[in-house]
Amino acid sequence: MSAIAEPVTSEQQLVAFHLAGETYGVDIALINEIIRMSEITAIPRTPTEVEGIINLRGKIVPIVDLRKRMELPVVPKTSATRIIVLAFDEHIVGIIVDRVEGVVRIADSDIEPPSQLITCRDQDYVRAVGKNEGQLVILLNIQKVLRIEGIEAVAA
Asked: 3-state class of 87 per DSSP?
């Protein structure tokens, strides 16, 4: 009796989070950790989306309000609000999100590039759109989202 090989389906693992009623995803490989909101120390003369810095076990981490960065309406923080700490390009940066859904796996066959009809100036923020259990997940190119002057100076 021979075993029937299951087809290998390539997939992406993402951390899904909510922001202004939409679901977004970031590659799990970029996630350092997810923490509750903590006191943020404001730094003068930084971009408005940079809330300030936190001390995370001896490391100074700049914190960016993703709502402000994506030009979404600002709302009060809740008990579900989280900071996702990301590590990339030799930097550690935290982003404030409304709530974290958790880890999702989306098959590559369920991921499509963004539509060419997207003509906003920040279209490179969206690297793809995935379908997960009947909902759309906007996959962010978080490195491009966080390319803002001032973050490098705060993180240095």
From this structure: strand
